[in-house]
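Hey, resending since the last one bounced:
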Amino acid sequence: MSQTQTEAEIFTLKYPFTTAAGSSISQLSLKRLKVKDLKQVKQTHKDPADWDEPLISRSTGLLPEDLDNMDLADYLGCRPDFKKSQGWVNNPTVLIKAQGLLARWFRFQPEAIEALDTDDLEMWLEQAEEQIKSEYGDRN
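The structure tokens again:
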């Protein structure tokens, strides 16, 4: 998802559905998620296998119950972006370590880290890795 902070990716459904409130949904507007979205989902869902639905819900603004009415082909079609963005945080301690690194290396405040979307967080982590290797050498 290459987009600016205010843009959302539009995902057109192959099989439109109706929400519990009676609204017809033919496309989803997927807003970029922030680190705080992932942290909030992790508080209520410890198993990473359970993160897709609440993350998609947060991204679309739809209730999880509404997503239950979505065709499985469409649901699976919009999941790759979420899988890609959470792949590096499947270990619960990795996010904490990443936040600690950014706070220490760049002096980021916690609220600034939480406001980062996952793409920006990964970009800053890559920048930190490059700078650390440049300053201290590659010790692999």
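The CA atoms of residues 41 and 54 lie 7 Å apart.

Sorry for the duplicate.
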